[in-house]
């Protein structure tokens, strides 16, 4: 074990007495491993790690009122929980479970140490203003494929609320409680458990056979999928797209998170072309072709450009009904 990781007692003291774990969370006897890291760049934890969250009720992700970010993942070493806080410019991390050393080893990478925003040159006033306002944006890199791939498959061609519900139900129903004093968090199922989920459980979660079958094909070759986390983004996308049911939209959504891919622009999205068109050309009817044309000046950094556009809040007002919820019984 690396000497920079040290077990921390389960109790620490602050002015006024003992610190408390989040309300309603049982105490755990195992002390966490800890690591401190001072990033040599501005860092906004919420903005950087927020892209990993799958809806407000994501059982694998939680932000506490003090700004700490909690993540529960199935690492190559086993389940792990990571708590990250930023205090006076220093990242303080605690990790529990078999995956704790793996988490702490990769803490800088997760928080954008391998990201290079200096390669990004704003060419539009809106993007330049947002970049100045959000200097702490870094592209997170989890180095974990399935934890981004599976929820991305669930999000195919349905509303975000439906996809978030499916993720919650499947992870809580078939995953396992996350290690450590977590705020009721869960680690997603391992590949074998995903493969054994009965058809009626997919149905209860609102997942049609097409998406369920795609997930089952992916977990069947989980090791080959996870290898993509070490590849260049285009190679990684090509690897993922070998699985029937995984196309450019899903592969881009995955490698944006797993590989920290700055140019993996999401093509095939229902809303993104209109958002980009509205922000850069006052064209809310833009399609994918128009969006890619508008993003041409940001070649190599197109995902970063779209993140900044979304963070700007400059989105077109809705004028059409939202995507209708899907009744899978009719499929």
UniProtKB/TrEMBL annotation:
Keywords: DNA damage, DNA repair. InterPro entries: Alkylbase_DNA_Glycosylase/TA, DNA_glycosylase. The keyword DNA damage applies. Residues 1-37 are annotated as: Disordered. It comes from the Bacteria. Transmembrane segments: none annotated. The keyword DNA repair applies. This is DNA-3-methyladenine glycosylase 2 family protein.
